[in-house]
Amino acid sequence: MLLTDWDRLVMALSSIRGMQSMGRFTTILAGALMTATLTGCVERRFIIESNPPGAVVYQNGQQIGVTPVELPFVYYGTYEFELVKDGYQTQRFETAVHAPWFQWLGIDFFSENVWPHHIQDNRHLRYDLEPIQQPRTEDLLKNAGQLRERAQGLAVPLPEN
Fold it and tell me: Looking at the domain 41-128, which fold is it?
């Protein structure tokens, strides 16, 4: 028969209660220590990927790493990431990260402090980068000619001394 962590805790507490030499405070203290060793936690992590891979990821001006990269986070909300890669447009992505049910108000205390197992909340973020569009030479020459004509029409006579 397989015993769960809760079954072991109940058995341990009942054996402690059976010891008549221990006081009530010692029993409570031993139970609290056993409970503390069984508690889990919630680990939150972004796994950021880009298409193509190898983009440098920035958050709040701080370089995080090169995709694919993992980043722990503490709170749920809106995050902004900037991805930079040679040959591709530098892009900013704003991502809303919503709390899962085990992080809702009231439930979060139990999932963080009481639940005896480790909870992993991985958020996979995949961003597509757009290649830099090279302008055509004909378009550049045409725009340059138009700017030159406009500049000649705006010629302002110099004041005489």
Answer: Immunoglobulin-like (2.60.40)
